[in-house]
Design goal:
By secondary structure, this protein is of the alpha+beta class. The two termini are about 50 Å apart. The chain folds into three domains: about 260 residues, no CATH class; about 80 residues, no CATH class; about 80 residues, no CATH class. The mean pLDDT is about 85. The longest helix has about 70 residues. It is elongated, with a radius of gyration of 45 Å. The strands form six sheets. The protein has a five-stranded antiparallel β-sheet. A three-stranded antiparallel β-sheet has the order 2-13-12, with no helix packed on it. It has eight helices and 18 strands.
């Protein structure tokens, strides 16, 4: 281990001298670190751009698909009709009136009329009920325990007052809606004997299906029934839920969703704008004045990059070049002299109203072209941006290795300089010691001669 003697013999600040010499040699490492930082920033910027171009490819693929434009919305002429539609819904309309609403059977029973075991029959299936006691609450609990199977629930309701002024109660049994869910309650387990204590015939509310009449003004309306108040697929992909009986015709209409279609076009242009804006912000040249008053011009990370320049040109061309001799500006897509793209929504709506099929076809073609450009750049395997990122990441890695090697080289150089200066100090110390001894000897000789 080398021991440093900092200027003990020479009087020099050998530590500062060593630091200065190492710093001079470290200039090369500083340059490498600057290059590594710049390369890392470029990789980050390219990754961000690649992510946005990939999103553009996804959006363009969606807009290019004909199915994406088959969006519809359903509406009803009555607030009493709720309409829901799926992606399969097709434009059309239907008139109907509401004849009945669906209801479930409601029956009232006196607990005293029920033996220790009774049977609920629903749809031909028997279910035996054995309450823990004859109390109304225990009977209701036993019925409710099997309600998932029977569809019948029970609760205690007040139905009057006896001669002593005490409240009297009965059991209310309620079944699921729909005529097929009517039920009967038989005392005991033999449902073939005796009379049911509760049945569809003596129900407070009878079980029935909801019913609508299609084209009610025609000579032979077509009647549809449903166990619930919802009718599925009355129009393809359209479900109706009725909430009020009405003899007046109700019209349900399914039309193309112009707003959703406009949103598709806007989504494509917006994603293109995001990509082009990202490129512009990373290419923009900045000007500033340094401490000496000189003007310093600095290009953006993408400045001068031919691959980025070609990508910009390809995206702009794909979006704005003519389709079969017709300019996309005819349907509202345009680009100004600064390269900024936009969608004139009023012009797009006008084009859709005049020629919906032609406008959608043009949008699909434009989107397909933009998608091809975006996919070619961002493809995870061999996209131009992907390969560029991989290449730059390799550069960053190589520069990092060089910086690390310089750390080792500078550490070795410092150790060498410390050893050299320490050796110099030791030798100077010996010389100084010898000089002092000689001086003392000479002084002694001179003294002895006197």
């Amino acid at each position: 281990m080398t021991i440093g003697i900092d200027g003990m013999a020479s009087g020099l600040d050998t530590g500062a001298i060593i630091d200065g010499l190492v710093k001079i040699q470290a200039n090369q490492q500083v340059l490498l670190k600057q290059k590594s930082s710049a390369a890392s920033s470029l990789v980050t910027a390219l990754q961000g751009l690649n992510s946005r171009v990939s999103s553009l490819a996804t959006a363009a693929k969606k807009v290019a698909e004909a199915g994406s434009w088959a969006v519809t919305k359903a509406s009803s002429s009555s607030d009493a009709i709720t309409v829901s539609s799926s992606a399969d819904a097709k434009p059309g309309s239907v008139d109907f009136s509401v004849t009945h609403l669906a209801s479930g059977q409601v029956s009232l029973l006196k607990p005293a009329d029920l033996p220790s075991t009774f049977t609920i029959v629903v749809g031909g299936t028997s279910h035996e009920i054995t309450p823990s006691s004859a109390h109304a609450d225990d009977i209701a609990a036993a019925v409710n325990e099997l309600s998932a199977k029977t569809g019948v629930s029970a609760t205690r309701v007040r139905t009057g007052t006896d001669g002593d002024g005490n409240a009297t109660y009965q059991l209310q049994l309620t079944g699921r809606s729909g005529a097929d869910n009517a039920f009967a309650v038989h005392p005991g387990t033999d449902t073939s004997a005796g009379t049911a204590v509760a049945s569809a015939a003596n129900a407070v509310v009878k079980a029935q299906d909801a019913e609508i009449a299609l084209w009610p003004s025609s000579a032979t309306p077509l009647k549809l029934t449903s166990a619930t108040n919802t009718f599925d697929d009355v129009l393809e992909g359209v479900n109706l839920t009725v909430s009020k009986v009405s003899a007046d015709p109700v019209t349900v209409t399914v039309t193309s969703d112009a707003e959703a279609q406009r949103k598709l076009a806007d989504e494509l242009v917006s994603n293109v704008t995001i990509v082009l804006s990202e490129i512009e912000s990373r290419t923009k040249v900045t000007t500033k004045t340094d401490d000496a008053g000189n003007t310093v011009v600095t290009g953006g990370l993408f400045s001068g990059d031919s691959a980025i320049r070609f990508l910009t040109s390809d995206v702009q061309s794909a979006l704005t070049n003519p389709v079969d001799g017709r300019s996309p500006s005819d349907i509202g897509i345009s680009m100004d002299r600064y390269g900024k793209v936009s969608l004139d929504k009023a012009a797009f709506d006008k084009a859709m109203s005049e020629d919906a099929q032609g406008t959608m076809a043009m949008m699909q073609t434009v989107a397909a072209r933009v998608g091809e450009v975006a996919e070619r750049a961002s493809n995870a395997k061999d996209g131009t941006l992907t390969t560029k990122i991989t290449s730059k990441e390799s550069v960053v890695k190589d520069l990092g290795t060089q910086v690390t090697k310089w750390d080792e080289r500078l550490a070795a150089r410092r150790a060498q300089l410390v050893a050299q200066f320490s050796s110099m100090e030791v030798r100077l110390s010996r010389v100084n010691s010898t000089q002092s001894w000689l001086s003392n000897q000479i002084a002694g000789l001179n003294a002895s001669r006197q």
